[in-house]
Design brief:
Blueprint (H helix, E strand, L loop, with lengths): L2 H11 L5 H15 L5 H17 L5 H17 L5 H12 L1 H4 L3 H9 L1 H8 L27 H5 L1
Helix pairs in contact: 1-2, 2-4, 4-7, 5-8
Length: 153
């Protein structure tokens, strides 16, 4: 059963609350083995990227949480020089509008500076100067380690 099939099985059979952790566990197991695989690493790349292609921009809570969990596991297990991390950073930039509302995404960006830095290279500059635009409709509390999720609840 490949990673795409596991994702489908999880969405069909698992409790919704468990889905992100199961997807993350599958990616964790797969990324742990990558340095030893050779040609199978290409299969992992295809399976993992196929999952994200299938999800596209996650519009609902469960896929958003699953994406953040997978990004966290992968970004902490994959070497910063690996092109898969760059691909994942590109995907994170592509989905930033959907993920930015989750405190766990902000925590991920702090915990994974290589992912964050690579993601920032994919984002576009602001379209207007701060004095020429309106204040963002999304307000996030100031970040303090360990208290961000409490403030957002």
């Amino acid at each position: 059963m490949d990673l795409v099939q596991k994702k489908v099985k999880i969405s069909d059979d698992a409790d919704e609350a468990d889905a992100p952790s199961e997807v993350a566990a599958n990616v964790s197991e797969s990324t742990r083995r990558v340095p030893h695989l050779g040609t199978e690493a290409v299969g992992l790349w295809k399976n993992l990227t196929a999952c994200f292609v299938d999800i596209n921009r996650p519009q609902t809570l469960d896929p958003q949480r699953a994406v953040i969990s997978v990004l966290r596991v992968a970004s902490l297990k994959i070497q910063p020089s690996d092109s898969l991390l760059d691909w994942l950073a590109h995907y994170a930039a592509y989905t930033v509008d959907q993920l930015q509302h989750h405190p766990s995404f902000h925590d991920l960006l702090e915990a994974a500076p290589a992912l964050c830095s690579s993601m920032m290279n994919r984002l576009r500059p602001a379209s207007a100067a701060p004095w020429q635009s309106q204040t963002s409709k999304h307000r996030f509390p100031p970040y303090k380690p360990g208290s961000y999720e409490e403030q957002c609840e």
